[in-house]
Amino acid sequence: MMEQNIMNRFRIMYLVGLILLFISIFLEWYSFQMYNFENTLVASWSYYFFIGWYTPLSSDIPVNIFMKPESSIIPFILHVILIGFILAAGYVILFKNIDTAKNIHTYNKCAYINLFLVLLIGFYVIVCPIIYLAPNELYFPFLSIRDYDLEYFYVYSLGSGYILQLISFPLTFPYSIFYYKTINSFIQQERAPEKLIEQKIQNSQEFLDLDKYIAEEELQQQKNISIPKDNEINKILTTSIERRK
Amino acid sequence: MSYQVLDTKLKSLIHVCKETGNHKKIAVVSFILTSNRINEIGLNLGVRPRNKDSGEKIFEYMEYINEIFVENINVPIFQASHIEMLRQSEILFLKNKGFIPLEYIKNMFSIYYELRKLEVPNLYKSIDHETLIHSSKLGAFSMLSVGARRKKNDPDAFKPLILQKITEKEAFLKKNLQDDLNSQNFETVIYLHTLKKSLGHEKNGKITIQGALKDNINYQRSLNLIFGYFILGLIILFTSLGIIILFELSFITIHAIGLNSWVIIFFACGSILIYFYIKQFRKGRF
Q1: What share of chain B has pLDDT > 90, as a percent?
Q2: Domain annotation covers residue A150
Q3: Are residues A33 and A112 in the same domain?
Q4: Lowest mean pLDDT among A106-110, B39-43, B221-225, B230-234
Q5: Is B262 in contact with A218 (Cβ distance < 8 A)?
Q6: Would A68 be classed as within a structural domain?
Q7: Residue B105 CA to chain centroid, in angstroms?
Q8: What is the rounded distance in angstroms from the CA atom of residue B68 to the CA atom of residue A6?
Q9: One domain for residues A30 and A132
Q10: Position B218 pLDDT exceeds 80
Q11: A100 vs B: CB within 8 A
Q12: Which of chain B's residues have a Cβ under 8 Å away from the Cβ of A3?
């Protein structure tokens, strides 16, 4: 069915999002470079989750050392939690398919894993720039500044790790929310009153206007006998309406 | 509309259609009535309604319901002869675009009235265990009911005996159900089925029918929502990115030129998506 295909596409999207998220952990998250007006790199710092600030330049360049940003940006434990949740969410997407769920209660934890992962990505993508980058004057998302007094050229930019996290957010968000909402609503549905199902039955019923059918046939019957005049049609309709009453 | 009123109207329609010779109209009505009744039975049993859009036929839907209940409690809801009769009529009805012989129309009405006699419980309601136990003389098993289980310190000691009793009773009721689908017996069979399963672990005591979630009515309907969530995710992303830069701009005004364009881009994308979301998903669907 079409709906199932759509669902599968969103599951694949989610899986792609997880893979991108996992890769992002090992890539550069933020970078800062400083050039002089001869276009020579004098300072360069990149932020990686597991090694912190890293410079490809020699450590004996004083300007480079001076320009090193504040030590660690994001708490290390958070990265470990993120990896844990990526692996758990990977297990959920591969082995706990909501389509084939029979006992919905066993999927409750899976729904929370998915939801928490999305919140965690949201934290990395939205909250971290606010609480860590901006106060350290590390500009977001990309900015180049020319300082004519000191004759330096600064380049601030988000790294490929952040970009991948940014992409993974919309990829994982729909399926996670859908998963959570579905599980939640089905657990609530178990407590649903009988009226709800009555309403569903009414909505699913095909409309059948027997009065109309009878009137149509009676009219046809009259036509077969003689071509009725307007007042005769009115009479037939009145009879039909009275019968309905 | 009550069955009495419906029957009176149906009688008038059949009478007048016989006069005009329009048998097609009676055939159409018989199919609508049967389809509605089967849908009603399906929904009461917690199954999704018939999927007309994807061309699911009435007899296929009946087979589908039977399949679920045979798998769960080994009791078919519809008789095989009815399904077969309906299959023949429906295929001919679709092939001839509504024109079927009178004999088939009669069969359709007989199936419809048989279906009306069928007593199926509403599985969405909670079972009143006490009533069920009293009316079904199942007192011996009541120690497993939620309240009673707390009183007993070691119900495990009785497990094999209880399990045997339940199985015996279940088999007896199932045999009865195959001859006559009775609402009370049906509920009791499902209750016993649940009870048997709950011997190993805690349950809330409600009727549960095992079936994949994809077959559930609410789940099918909610599939459309996933597109809405996708748009919602993008809205959250774009507006949050815009807010981050606005926050940044609040304390660095000197280099604002480069960042202004990003704010405009993010908020513009966010606004377009919000408009699209409200137009497509907010009205009616949610």
Answers
A1: 12
A2: yes
A3: yes
A4: B221-225
A5: no
A6: yes
A7: 28
A8: 25
A9: yes
A10: no
A11: yes
A12: 220, 223-224
pLDDT at res. B270: 93
Strands (E), chain B: none
User: Does residue A123 sit within a domain?
Assistant: yes
Identify which of A45, A26, A57 has the alpha carbon closest to the alpha carbon of residue A137.
Answer: A45
Residue A223 pLDDT class (50, 70, 90 cuts): confident
From the list A203, A175, A199, A177, the residue with the least C-alpha distance to A189 is A199
Q: Which long-range contacts (CB under 8 A, 24 or more apart) does B186-190 make?
A: B186/B75, B186/B119, B186/B120, B186/B121, B187/B121, B187/B127, B187/B132, B188/B132, B188/B136, B188/B138, B189/B73, B189/B75, B190/B73, B190/B121, B190/B123
Based on the fold, state whether residues A41 and A118 are members of the same structural domain: yes
Mark whether A169 and A231 lie in a shared domain. no
ipTM: 0.72
pLDDT of amino acid A170? 94
Whether residues A167 and A223 share a domain: the answer is: no
The mean pLDDT value for B92-115 works out to: 88
- Hey, is the C-beta of B240 within 8 angstroms of any chain A C-beta? yes
CA closest to A189 among chain B residues: B124
Please tell me whether residues A44 and A153 are part of one structural domain. Answer: yes
Answer yes or no: do A233 and A132 share one domain: no
User: Which residue segment(s) compose the domain that A32 sits in?
Assistant: 2-196
CA–CA separation, A116 and B73 (whole Å): 38
Report the number of distinct structural domains present in chain A: 2
Domain annotation covers residue A202: no
- Alpha carbon of B18 to those of A44, A214, A228, B6: distances in Å? 92, 12, 20, 18
- The answer on A186 and A111 residing in a single domain is yes
**Residue A237's pLDDT band (cuts 50, 70, 90):** low
**Which residues of chain A from 5 to 64 reach within 8 Å of chain B, CB to CB?**
6-7, 10
For chain B, give the mean pLDDT.
75
- Is pLDDT larger for residue B146 or for residue B264? B264
Nearest to A143 among B214, B251, B255 (CB): B255
Give the mean pLDDT of B154-174. Answer: 67
Q: Please report the pLDDT score of residue A122 as a whole number.
A: 93
> What are the residue ranges spanned by the domains of chain B?
3-117, 129-216, 222-282
Strand, helix or coil at A143?
strand
pLDDT digits (tens, 9 = 90+) for A46-65: 989 888 888 888 777 788 88
- Name which of A137, A182, A196 is nearest B219 (Cβ-Cβ): A182
